[in-house]
Amino acid sequence: MSAAIGGAVAPLSFTATPAAAEEQRGPQPPTARWDFDERTGTLTREAVSGSADPIDYVFDDARYKPDSDPVRRRGVRGRALYFDGYSTVVTADGPGKLDPAGGMTVDVWIAPYAYEHGIDGKPQALVNQHDPDAKTGFLLGLRRFGQIVFRLGFGTDLIEVGGAQDQPAAKGRWTHVAATYDPAARQLRLYRDGRPIGTATTPDRPPHLAAAEPLLIGRHNRPTLINGEFHANMYMGLMDSLVIRPGALDDATAHKEHAEQVEALPGRLVPRPDVTLDRTRFDGDRHRPQFHLLPPWHWMNEPHAPVYFKGKYHIFYQHDPLGPYWGQIHWGHAVSTDMVHWRDMPIALAPAADSVGPDGCWSGSAYVDGDRGPVLFFTGGDDRLPYRQRTGTAVSSYQADGDTDLPTWTMRSEPVTEAPAGLPAGPGTAWAENFRDPFVWEEDGVWYQLVGSGIVDYNGTQVTRKYGGTALVHTARRPEGPWTYRGPLHWNDLTAVPEPGEAWELPVLLPLPGPKGGRTGKHILLVSPWWEAFHPNAVKHTYYWIGTFDKDACRFVPDHEKPREFDFGEHFTGPSGFVTPDGRSVLFSIAQDRRSEQQHAQSGWAHNAGMPVSVSLRQDGRLGVEPITEASGLRGRRLAGIRQTSVEEANRQLAGVSGDLLDISTVIEPRGARKITLAVRACADGTEETLLSYDTAERRFWIDRGSSSLDPDVRKGVHGGTVDLDGGKLRLRVLLDRSMLEAYINGTNSLTSRVYPTREDAIGLRLTAEGGAAQVLELDVWRMNGAYDTAVAPAAYDPPRPADVDALPNHDFASGDLTGWTVVSGTTFSDANVTTRPDWGWGGPFCQAETDEDPAGHHLWGFNPNAGGDDATGVLRSATVVLGGDGVVDLLVAGGHDPDRLYAAVVRAGDGKVLAKATGRGVEQYRRVVFDLSAHLGERIYVEIADRSTGGWGHINVDDVNVPVRRE
C-alpha cells in the first residue's frame, strides 16, 4: 500500500488512445459511461450504448407527496446525480463489451455527504456488478470513514484492494477515484486524484464478470436489509462521470490524465460541490411539520445540548444522515436567534476512527466555557470495548475563526468519563453497559456531569439483579477534567417505583424558577425510562420529580416518592434542557411519530422536535408548563378573535376557519357543562376528526384519535390525564402543525400527539359543549408560518378511491376467527392464529391495522406454537368474489421471506393463475403491499395464503386484505 502525496483534481478525458498504448494494454475507449447530465426525469443515459437506465428513487412514485425527480446538482463538468443514501440507485444491464482478462479500469467523481457504518462488513457501493458468494464480478466503493476499496472476482478468490486510510474520499469535496486491474503486473491498484493509494496482488488467472447480476450504481448487489425495509450499503452524495473501460492505468498515466484535465477546467480549479440537503425535497408532504425543528432529510431522534452563545441559540440532535431509520448516529446542528426560527448547519459530530465515538456519537449536552465558547459532551460508542459507551468532548473553531454560527467542531480523542465494572452505586454497582447521555453544567466554579445508567448486581459474566435506573454524578474543575465520581444522584426502586425503568436515559436537572422568574430553591429531575427487553411503555413517557439538589453531597432529594408523568400523550420523549440568559428553564423534546418502518421509508423522514417549553414552580407547588413565549413569533394572520359568547355562537364563527398550521388559544368557563370538546383536523361530515375533550366531573383532559385518520396503518387511541380547572376556567392552547399536535392545559400539563388525516378537507375546527351553558371568554386562531427560510408548500392529498364497492368477507379478521375463510390444507392456520396481540413479545409492535370496524386490531399471525410453530404448513383461502372498483388490491404482510413457498396471493378462480403475490421480509412488523389488478376487472378471484415453508421464519402474517368487490 502506498500513500498519496497530493496532486491536482480533475476529470479524466476519454479520447482514443494511440496504438502503442493499446499494445501496452493501457486505458482504452469506454465500454460504458454515465455522465448524469440530465436535468429532469427518472432516467440517465449510458453514453456508449445510448440506453436509458432507470433511476429508482423514493419519490418517483411518492406515497405522501407529489411525485418528484431525483435530486441533481452541478457536477465537476455538467450535472451530477445526488444519491440520497437509502433509495437512489441506477440499474443497468452491464459494463458493455468488456473483457476483463485484458485489464479493466473503473473511475468516477464523487463528493460524499456521509459515510455508512459498514453494516455487515460490506462497503457502500459506488458501482458494482458482483456476486460475492460466487466470487465473481467487481465492486468499487467506500468502507468506513471513506476508505476507498475495489473488489474483483476470480471465481475462486474475491480480491480487494483498500486505499490508505489517511487518503479517504473526503466529505464535501470532489474526489476522483480510479480502480484498475493490471493482468501483466497481477495487481489491483487504486488512485485518488491521480495518485496511487493502494495495491493488491491478484491470482494468475483471468477474472470473471458476474453477467447474471444487474450493474447497480449507488447500491450493493447484496445489500443488508434493515428492519425489513431499508437497503444498507448504499452511497450518499454526488456522483459524476462514471466510466468503465478496458485496459489498465499505470501511475504515470493516472497522473498525466489528471494534470491535463485540470488545465481544461475554468480557472484550473475543481468546483466546490453543493451537497447541502434541500428541504424542498419534501414539498407537499401532507404530514411533515412546518414550524417545528426537524432535520432537512431523513432521521432524527432527541434534540439535545441546547446552548446560548453570543446572541444565538444552538440545538443539536441525534441524526442518521443516510436514511429515515436508526443507525450511524451523528449530531445534527441548527442555529436560531429565538428558538423557533431555525437555520440548518453542517453536521457537528460524526463517527470517526480516531475519536471516542467510532461507532456512534450519541446524546449529550453543552455548556459555555467562557471565551472558548460551548463545549459539547457526547456519548461515544465504541464496539471494541467491553462496555461500549463512554463520554467525550468536542470544541468549536470559534476561537480561531470567530464564527458564532459554530459550524465546525473537533472531537477530542480522549474520553472524559467511563464506567468500569464494579463502580459502586447505592445498593449495587453501576450498569456499565448502560452509561450514556451526559448532562453537564457549571456552578460556582464546579462542573457537574450526570450520566444515565442503572443499578445492578453483576457476577462477572451477567447481571443477576436490577435495582432501577439512576444518574451517576461526576464533578470537575474544568471540562477536560479530571472528573471525580460522586455516586448516584437519585434512583428508582423497581419494586416500589417501576415506571422510570431499569435504566435512565437523558437525565436532566434544572432549577425551577417561580411564576415571576425568581429563585425557588427547587429543581426538576426528568428522565426517560429504558428497559433491556421489549416493554410496552418504552419510548412513550417522560417522568419527573420536583425536589432539592444538594450540590455538596451531589444528591437529589425529591418532594414526592412517585414520579409524575410529564406529558399526557405518548409522543413526548427524550427531554433535554438549559437555562436561558433571562433565567427561564427550557425543555426540548423529540416527538416520536410512531409510524411503521415502511411509512418512514415511503415518506423519507422520521420524527421531529416538540415545541420548546418553559417549566416553572407555581405558587400552588405544581409544575408550570407552557410553550416558550417566542412561539407567538411564528404567528401569521389572525383567523378568529372571538370574545364573550356562547359555545354555539363561537362554533358558528369557526365555520369559516380552517387549517393544518394553526395556533389556537381559548379560555372557556364551563358553567355546568359536563364535557367541552374542541375538534381539529375535522371534516365537515365528521369522517375524520381529532377530539380534544375536558370532563368537568372527572377533571380529565384527553385526546381521542379514533377517527383521526381513515388510514388503517395509522396508530390511533385515546390518551389523557387528570388536571384541575384554573380558577374555574379551562385554558387551552393548541399548536397544530400538519401531523403534529400539542395541547397545553391550564398552564400545568401538556399533551403531545400525532394525527395523520387522509382527506384534503380534514382541516376544520369545531367547538361543542354537553349540558350547562358554557361561555367562551376568549378564542383566538392564528395561521402559523414556517420555522425555516423556505416557503411553506400546501399539503397534497390523493384522490379518493371508489366507494361503490363491497369488501372481501372478514377481510381484516375482525370476527376474531376464520369466518369467511377456508382451510384448504395443513395445520398451520386455525382460529387460534387470529389474535389481537399488539407485539410478539420480544421485539416490538406488529403495527396491525386499526379501523372503526375492528378497533381491537385482529390479525392473522402465522406462528402458532401449539400447532407446530414454524414447521407447520398449510393453505388458507378467502371467499371467491368479482374484482371491482379500481381493481387495486392492498394488504398487510409480514413474516418469513420465501416467495415460492410463503406468500399471500391473488388468484384467478377460473384457471388458478396467480395474478400477484407477496411474501414477508424476515420481520414480524407488517408492511403494506399494493397490487394494481385493474387489467382483471370483472374477473372472479380469491386470496390464497400459503405456508409451505418449514424451519426458522417458516410462517406468514396477514391482515387487512382490501379487495374492491363488485356489488351484485
Tell me the layout of helices and strands:
Layout: H1 19-23, E1 32-34, E2 43-45, E3 52-56, E4 72-74, E5 79-84, E6 89-92, E7 104-112, E8 124-131, E9 136-142, E10 148-153, E11 158-162, E12 175-182, E13 187-192, E14 195-201, E15 215-217, E16 225-226, E17 230-231, E18 236-246, H2 251-264, E19 298-309, E20 312-320, E21 330-336, E22 343-349, E23 361-368, E24 374-381, E25 389-396, H3 398-401, E26 409-411, E27 424-425, E28 428-430, E29 436-443, E30 446-458, E31 463-476, E32 484-491, E33 503-512, E34 522-530, E35 543-550, E36 555-558, E37 564-565, E38 572-579, E39 585-591, H4 597-603, E40 605-606, E41 608-609, E42 613-617, E43 623-627, E44 635-646, H5 647-653, E45 661-669, E46 675-682, E47 690-695, E48 700-704, E49 718-722, E50 730-737, E51 740-745, E52 749-754, E53 764-770, E54 775-784, E55 822-826, E56 834-835, E57 859-860, E58 874-877, E59 881-882, E60 888-895, E61 902-908, E62 914-918, E63 923-932, E64 940-947, E65 956-962
Parallel strand pairs: 19-40
Antiparallel strand pairs: 1-18, 2-3, 3-6, 4-5, 5-18, 6-15, 7-12, 7-18, 8-9, 8-15, 9-10, 10-11, 12-13, 13-14, 16-17, 19-20, 20-21, 21-22, 23-24, 24-25, 25-26, 27-28, 28-30, 29-30, 30-31, 31-32, 33-34, 34-35, 35-36, 35-37, 38-39, 39-41, 39-42, 42-43, 44-54, 45-50, 45-54, 46-47, 46-53, 47-48, ...
